[in-house]
Amino acid sequence: MSWGFLRDLLSGVNKYSTGIGRIWVAVVFIFRLLVYIAAAENIWKYERDEFECNIKQPGCENVCFDHFFPISHIRLWALQLIMVSTPSLLVVFHVAYRENREKHHNQKLYKSPEKIDGRLLCTYLISLILKTAFEIVFLVLFHKLYNGFEVPHLVKCDMRPCPNTVDCYISKPTEKRIFLFFLVATSCLCIVLNLSELSYLIFKYSIKCYLKRYTKKWQ
Q1: Which of 18, 75, 163, 193 has its CA 20 to 30 A from that of 126?
Q2: Domain named Connexin N-terminal: which ranges (predicted)?
Q3: Are 184 and 139 in contact, with CB atoms under 8 Å apart?
């Protein structure tokens, strides 16, 4: 898969973001997307081929692998990257709508189509909420699917068609565990950044509205 579209999307949204939002874009692009492409993808590349059990019973190894790895870590991570980035499209579409509306009416309808205010502010806040929700959902999903954020050296399997309890070994468990912890840490950092930006914008525009009302009342 080409990640160029996701890179262009994040770069495009960057000019509409606050300072905190730009830090979020940098974290996603450098510490998540580039790490995924450059390193993590190769670690799980031969995940199925390197999964070994101490028995050659036909079908046993396949069943055990499917039981302990219902969804590949790397595919789930890729889906997470896509899902937490796509809410930014809401902002891009809203700005494009503003620009197209001005072009259609051939007049200036907004002070700046790219300035975060009014309905665009609501769209931006919704995108932040969606990104945070997706991050939390995927962290819970990772925890549920893999019984925590651990990658064991040895797993025991007694599922049919295995004739008895067999030992299965996961390749490079320590390396995979390190990258899994890195994934969790960067996800948590992104959640903190999203909540910080959400709080900042709500506080900023609440103060702005309050001062505006106070000024009108005083006048």
Answers
A1: 75
A2: 42-75
A3: yes
